[in-house]
Amino acid sequence: xxxxxxxxxxxxxxxxxxxxxxxxxxxxxxxxxxxxxxxxxxxxxxxxxxxxxxxxxxxxxxxxxxxxxxxxxxxxxxxxxxxxxxxxxxxxxxxxxxxx
Length: 100
Fold this sequence. Notes:
By secondary structure, the chain is an alpha+beta fold. 28% of the residues lie in helices and 14% in strands. The chain contains three helices and four strands. The protein has helices spanning 32-36, 65-77, 90-99; strands spanning 3-4, 13-17, 45-49, 60-61. The strands form two sheets. The chain has a two-stranded parallel sheet with strand order 1-4. It is extended.
């Protein structure tokens, strides 16, 4: 799993176009819709550590400003569905798991 780094100093990974043989140059000009309907797919991106990582260390990258703004808006505006009687926030889950 890869999570968003809260600060630029915490970034320890990045994505780059893959250097493996499975990358096809024509993919750079295809739309996501074209990719999804393709019968032949392969690895297009590599996740690369930007420094040595310790065993068990969380992998963090910068998802970008647009993602962060959208996430903050979601957090501010989100309300669970009316029939979601068992809804728990991530904080509730953290507390619940810590007790286990």
